[in-house]
């Protein structure tokens, strides 16, 4: 695998796995401060999930009143409906990737704001609305990075995909004022050239949808000279239009260790990434929501108007306010 030339012009705006020029590739997937040991040559660089923010109550291992199998069946079915409903919305996605110096201060940045919208021909499209020149040092982003950002950071566990994972019930937990069921999720098998989620999810007991995801994308590629190291991430969702929990904020930070060998020196790369999803607006309604045998589709629901806030008090996990994350 060839490394990109750091002197080449800024690559196309659609990018994904971060590469350390002259070292290895580094995949970003988002987490909170995770310092990694660089003791072994091929140590997995970010195996732990991100620390949780305040607002998570104690985990109660009590078994639920309904069977775990039924809970899984119902929330994966609701996730399937959410995945379909997402096709009926437009939104804005802001991605910020930073390299950090030894003191934890940004010394390079990639930033891009993209509108996801529909063309007059009723086709989904993306439009970059803000993309200053990248100042990342030694790091470049490739198509695999945005593949993670677009498809796996806002993790959706549909009925179709549920069979690919071992889903283990852990207990019940309050996330702020939301009662949730907590599950560990890991792939049953790793198929070549495919990526999976591994970590923990919190499912709203009332709406039967995922409200928080905390884990990482797997597998990492640990081959010398080809290392793809995925950081842990945490994604928060918010209730939109009183129906669906949409992703609104993902964050991550980690020190990646690139092992030495094959002509390369070992080196650490401290990186931070945030992804914010805003301005959800319903473009059309094309699906019916059937729950417990009843049609609960709100056909009279009006799309959010520009400037309207989709977040509803008491219906979202607590997220760090923008002022608490100045970078």
Taking the sheet with the most strands, its summary is: 10 strands, antiparallel
Query: What oligomeric state do the depicted chains represent?
Result: single chain
**Secondary-structure-derived class:** mainly beta
Q: Determine Rg (CA atoms, Å).
A: 20 Å
- Measured as a percent range, the helix fraction is under 10%
Element order, helices and strands?
A: EEHEEEEHHEEEEEEEEEE
Strand content: 35-45%
Number of strands: 16
Number of helices: 3
**Shape type:** globular
Query: What is the strand arrangement across the widest sheet?
Result: 5-4-3-14-13-12-10-9-8-7
Distance between the termini: 32 Å
* Uncertain residue segments: 1-47, 299-315, 320-327
What is this structure's SSE topology?
Layout: E1 18-20, E2 25-27, H1 68-85, E3 89-100, E4 106-118, E5 124-130, E6 139-141, H2 143-151, H3 159-162, E7 165-175, E8 178-187, E9 196-204, E10 210-218, E11 228-230, E12 233-240, E13 244-258, E14 267-282, E15 290-291, E16 294-295
Parallel strand pairs: 2-11
Antiparallel strand pairs: 1-2, 1-6, 3-4, 3-14, 4-5, 7-8, 8-9, 9-10, 10-12, 12-13, 13-14, 15-16
């Amino acid at each position: 695998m060839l490394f990109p030339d750091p002197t080449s012009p800024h690559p196309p705006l659609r990018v994904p796995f971060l590469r350390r020029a002259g070292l290895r590739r580094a995949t970003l997937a988002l987490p909170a401060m995770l310092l990694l040991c660089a003791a072994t040559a091929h140590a997995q660089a970010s195996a732990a999930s991100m620390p949780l923010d305040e607002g998570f109550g104690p985990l109660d291992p009590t078994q639920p009143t309904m069977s775990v199998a039924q809970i899984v069946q119902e929330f994966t079915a609701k996730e399937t409906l959410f995945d379909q409903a997402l096709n009926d919305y437009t939104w804005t996605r802001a991605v910020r990737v930073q390299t950090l110096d030894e003191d934890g201060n940004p010394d390079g940045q990639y930033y891009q704001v993209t509108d996801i919208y529909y063309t007059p021909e009723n086709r989904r499209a993306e439009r970059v609305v803000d993309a200053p020149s990248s100042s990342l040092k030694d790091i470049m982003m490739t198509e695999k990075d945005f593949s993670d950002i677009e498809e796996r950071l806002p993790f959706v566990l549909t009925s179709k995909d549920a069979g690919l994972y071992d889903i283990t019930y852990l207990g019940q937990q309050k996330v702020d004022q939301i009662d949730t069921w907590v599950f560990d999720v890991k792939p049953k098998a790793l198929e070549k050239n495919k990526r999976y989620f591994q970590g923990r999810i919190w499912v709203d007991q009332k709406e039967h949808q995922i409200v928080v995801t905390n884990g990482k994308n797997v597998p990492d590629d640990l081959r010398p000279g080809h290392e793809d190291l995925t950081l842990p991430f945490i994604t928060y969702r918010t209730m939109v239009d009183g129906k669906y929990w949409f992703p609104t904020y993902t964050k991550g930070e980690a020190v990646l260790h690139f092992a030495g060998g094959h002509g390369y020196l070992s080196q650490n790369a401290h990186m931070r990434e945030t992804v914010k999803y805003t301005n959800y607006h319903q473009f059309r309604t094309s699906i019916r929501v059937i729950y417990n045998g009843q049609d609960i589709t709100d056909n009279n629901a009006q799309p959010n108007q520009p400037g309207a806030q989709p977040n509803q008090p008491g219906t979202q996990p607590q997220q760090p306010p923008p002022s608490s994350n100045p970078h």
